[in-house]
Prior knowledge:
By secondary structure, the chain is α+β, with helices and mostly antiparallel strands. Helices cover about 30% and strands about 35% of the residues. The protein has a 7-stranded mixed sheet with strand order 1-2-3-4-5-7-6, sandwiched between helices. The longest helix is centred in the middle third of the chain and has 15 residues, at about 85-100.
Amino acid sequence: MKLGKLRRKDIPRCVEIEKVLFAVDDPWSARAFHSELESGAYYLGAYSSEDVLIGYAGLAVVGPRGDYEASVHTIGVDPGYQGQGVGTALLRALLDRADELRAPVFLEVRTDNHRAQELYRRHGFERIGLRKRYYQPSGADAYTMMRPGASEQEVG
């Protein structure tokens, strides 16, 4: 597996994976992925040795220089490749980017997605809130989680 910048030609494959992973919660459309790439957000793809997209992840950064905040917008891994470190590699790459900017990182995760919560905890995230009925149309709740920025981690 290798990581690289998510390519526009990968968007149809992203949509396929979305439909499998998030079928009950309004999976992202091709238009949504195009919008994210056009916004300048940091998007990566995970590729098999045959250059097939097997996962993707995106990080948005906002705020003035020196006072950035980052938000994980999505992480998705083809079910056939889950449990092989793809999601971990994608998350670490996003966190490396946030650390370069010394930005704290926020995300939302379904309250019933224990596997993802554990991944985030292992990477320094803590629950800081609950968003009732965050995911639609299922109405599933989400935890908001946060990981301090690099400078805050060094002090703490």
